[in-house]
Amino acid sequence: MVPFSNMLPEKNQTSLLFILTSAFWMAVATFIGLLAATELIAPDLTRGMGWIVFGRLRPMHVNLVLFGFVTPGLLGAAFYYLPRLLKTELFSERLGMWTVAFWNLTVLAGGLTLSAGHSQGREYAEFIWPVDLMVVAIFSMVLYNFVMTVKHRREKTLYVSVWYANAAIILTGLTFALGNVIWRPTSGALTGIPDAILLWFYGHNIFGLLLTPLAAGVAYYVIPRACRTPLYSHTLSLLGFWSLIIVYTHVGTHHLLQVPVPTWLKVIGVVDSVGMVIPVMAFLINIWYTARGHLGEIHADVSAKFVFTGTIMYFFVSIQGSMMALPDVQRITHFNNWVVGHAHIGVLGFAGMIALGGIYYVLPKVLDRPLHSRFLADLQYWLVLIGMVGFTIVLTIVGLIQGTAWLNGETVYRVLPEVHVYYVVRASLGVMIFTGALIGLYNVLRTLFFPSGEAAS
Amino acid sequence: MKMTPRVVLIGSVAILFTIVLIMVVTPYFTVDRNPSEIFRSRSEIEAAGRKIYIANGCVYCHSQSIRTIDWGYGAERIAQSGDYVADHPILLGSQRTGPDLSQEGGEHPDDWHIAHFMNPRSTRPLSIMPRFDYLGVKNIEILTTYAQSLGLKDADDRMARQREWKEKVINAYEAGPVKNVEFLHAHVPEGWRNIPNPYPTSPAGLARGHKIYQDFCIGCHGPVGDGMGPAQPYIYPPPFNFTLLKNRGVSGGILYYQIMNGITGSAMPYFKKDLESEKIWEVGNYVAVYFINQSDANEAPRGIDAAYEPLLP
Questions:
Q1: Which domain holds residue B56?
Q2: Does B168 lie in the same domain as B140?
Q3: How confident is residue A338, by pLDDT bands cut at 50, 70 and 90?
Q4: B21 — contact with chain A (CB < 8 Å)?
Q5: What is the CATH number of the domain that holds B113?
Q6: Does B130 touch chain A (CB under 8 A)?
Q7: Mind telling me how many Å the CA of A365 is from chain B's nearest CA?
Q8: Could you report the per-residue pLDDT of A200-259, keeping only the tens digit for each?
Q9: Which fold is adopted by the domain A2-456?
Q10: End-to-end CA distance of chain A, in Å?
């Protein structure tokens, strides 16, 4: 860390290091996803290599995307906008830099232990107990820095992005500890049906209480700035914030509609999943009305372009999610690749695109020089966008084939050859996303450490 | 509403706390924890196998959650909360790249599982499951013990049946080909034994049968039907050599029945969930024409020919 910090400007080092973290793990995590997608086409490709067998790659991919790529990218932006919105300095850059160092250690430890076969076997909660403790520790470090910065603020009013960033960190710290059953170190699980109920309460909240509020915080900051216009409505921000926390936390049971859990719990899950329209549209109407008449400015600013595209994806993923919670729809969509497509619009299309937008917004501002290459950022935008949208379309088709075939009584084995060709297309689109991640990493590295001659002059 | 730091932090935590009470704590204390009628606790070795299952991420491709709308493997029993009372963690799964395993115990004998873990394509040629040979034979045996316990008491009943018939099929095999064929034919119900294959042999039908053979049978019975497929070294009694059936009283009906119902105890699974009627007749005729060189397709008693059947010369 010491040689790096010498090369960085004196302020905002935490933000820059989180951005670097995000760009690095995006490349790693998308490569793991690509490798896993390839194994579905050619299962003997990695024969004898237990440490990269599909069943271990899958949790590595998911956890590295969540905790290595998307969250650090969004935090990189939060560590930038919080001091500015509060008209103060970050409480402690030193603590912040230690947080990033410990963060990377946590992600590395999580990835390596999963690869070695140390898993708790619960989706999104696979990390073993020592890594769980590390995750809680890094969230506590971020929270302390955030809260102390708020405490030392010179701006009385708290802007909506400040609410979201602080709430995301404290709520996720708590639900992570709860969802990982942190008081039971050996298993990290409850027993029987209550374990499924807790797991999906927690699992859906990783999206609802971590990625969504952090991404909303970035959108609420970047879009009005890029448009040079005040936010459309304070009331809608309030409605969006509180309804998000209230409604989103109720929807987890929609993962268990076809499982023997109490019916009243399923009813709440379905009703609140449809009710997600309220926080989603409150946020989107607020952002889109702010941007109304300013799409030219958004298009001209590559960071705002990423962020605005993320809000559009949020619309699609949320409407789709509400629909998928309806029992009749879920008869087709459950247990198949439709859900994998849905997850990719949400995590990559919405939160990931906004994280990338945050990265490209913060870098030039902090370094006081343009990006190494605007063209490469644009290229990355199109690679990730086309890759992600194509990916989702293909996986949705696969899901419909699987879901309807199963419903008509075909066995899982019989449907495998029918979906093979789509797996090939899916992996090809994964190549685009991975290439986009590599280009992004190169662009970030060049901008940070080796600015081009043209930019320097 | 004035959003002070206190309102944001304490307000959001208070909401979370309330919702955890409703969505997690209330069900925790109110769900039915009575074991179901198939419940039994796991043995030490089964629990060890479950750990291997978790460590290698089997749960990402195999659910353990049978729904009211399912038809495939395990659909004989809809999942009930009492089936899961000892599952820690619960392994419902969220995706079916492979079949549901809720009731896998006793569906196949142990040797089928060993062959399948060593190379899934040796028993299921279209499978995209990874090979688990890297685990080593000992761990694969432990994992197999866990797989054979899925379904708990129902699995125990099926396993008892597998063991009972395993002994009989081994005895028959070791008594030599003549006795073995007699044994196999004798366990096909009489009505089935006397039915010839009702569809006439045609190039199109043989081509379809060939495709089914490659997708389902070739791993054990081999490309020339002599039972020397890649699964053969792991399976005992070894996969059947079809050439032994010539002039030994085989019929289309016998072939159909054995493919449909499987031969419990041996590694021959039933295919009635995977294959519809016409596909079974056609793969049976493919075996009869190419490997036995003796087909009774379209012989008497024929009944009325189906509308699309070609006229005989």
A1: 44-150
A2: no
A3: very high
A4: no
A5: 1.10.760.10
A6: yes
A7: 27
A8: 999 999 999 999 999 999 999 999 999 999 999 999 999 999 999 999 999 999 999 999
A9: Cytochrome C Oxidase; Chain A (1.20.210)
A10: 28
